[in-house]
Amino acid sequence: MKVAVVILNWNGKNFLEKFLPSVIAYNNSCSEIIVADNQSTDDSLAFLKTYYPQIRVIVNNENGGFAKGYNDALKKIEAEYFVLLNSDVEVTANWIDEVICLMDSDKMIAACQPKIKSFSDKKMFEYAGAAGGFIDKYGYPFCRGRILENIEEDKNQYNDVKEIFWATGACLFVRSNYFYEVGGFDEDFFAHMEEIDLCWRLKNRGYKIMYCPTSTVYHVGGGTLNKTSPKKTYLNFRNNLILICKNHPPKYFLLKLFIRMKLDGLAGIKFLFSGQFSHFIAVIKAHYSFYSTLGKTIEKRKKIKSEVTTYTTSAVYLHSIVADFYIRGKKIFTEIDFKDRFM
Question: CB of 33 within 8 A of CB of 55?
């Protein structure tokens, strides 16, 4: 099989009902649609059996989150390309063909994402991916079309094919052999930023991550965890520290980690003084969890270091996106996209 479109589902019957028709309508002859279920307790499985008996369903043994859920399901699928698609995504015509054509053109492309726009406001980019992901020198992720919480309107300003640092897990195209070459998703992430970790490991092997603007999908976002959820705050802060600790090159590593911890402290204080006490606690819990598993993370770092000859600097922003946003007032990507600030 050339392409496997794999939708990970957990209690998402409403999303399947709403968005599966577009996935089927715009499927092609060389791809198969598969739903991987993470032990849903709603009637997702009954719905699929009744209305979509032609769709293959894989039922995972447990709800291991995004990372383990996909790892478990993909072991049972053979395809040249995996397309990991959130259940809350509406696809459009040729969304598969455009990306596969780009990836087929260069064997060094390991992963790719389409243009991600908001389902609720289709002229706007969507938070989780927008027009391709980047990372700054302190490990903060951002996107073309989305800097921190500021989201841009799509005015065709990012309609160029471009190498990026990370591709969103909301709609991630990845070569299966490269996915397994780097060990798949890190299951300790559970959910959030595991795709950035995967892309960082791929880039450290010399592979490319790309953005394909001629493919467009519309993402609801927050289908499993709303961005206002303290649990999401916890996962984002914890996983970002793990991400840096695992993948950052040796040079300035400890200094960068120390600075990040200080910046996290400031973020926690901001939560506290803005009355978001539950998010303040989430930051503290995130750090506690990071410290408690530091030994395990360091072992992963050692393994990655033994496998990497040259750490990537491609699509890494060499300054602080947080300082640009809050101090220099740069709210959109085109204001900071200078060649001397990227490598």
Answer: yes
